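BUG: 3D viewer hangs when loading the predicted structure for this chain

Environment: internal workstation, default settings.
Expected: structure renders.
Actual: progress bar stalls at 90%.

Input used:
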Amino acid sequence: MPKLEITQSHKVTAAEAKQKLDGLSKELSEKYGLSSKWVSDTEAKVERTGATGVIKIEPTTVRVNLDLSFALSPIKSTVETKIQNELKKLFG
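Structure tokens produced before the viewer hung:
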């Protein structure tokens, strides 16, 4: 399974980061069927058909780790670029 690890620095509190990520989560759910569920104040599990992973809010970074199915391998770089761009919009 292809793996993605994306990090984005931030300068907000964990609560502010979570609020921003909630807004992004709603958008991604509507566009791509990606669901997320917060399992703690700083970690969310994300999944959709062909992809699973976690989003972690750390003191100065947001880290996204995703495992993609082989079916999604051809679009790995596209997925990675889209996530990076969205995180930059939120925290850059």
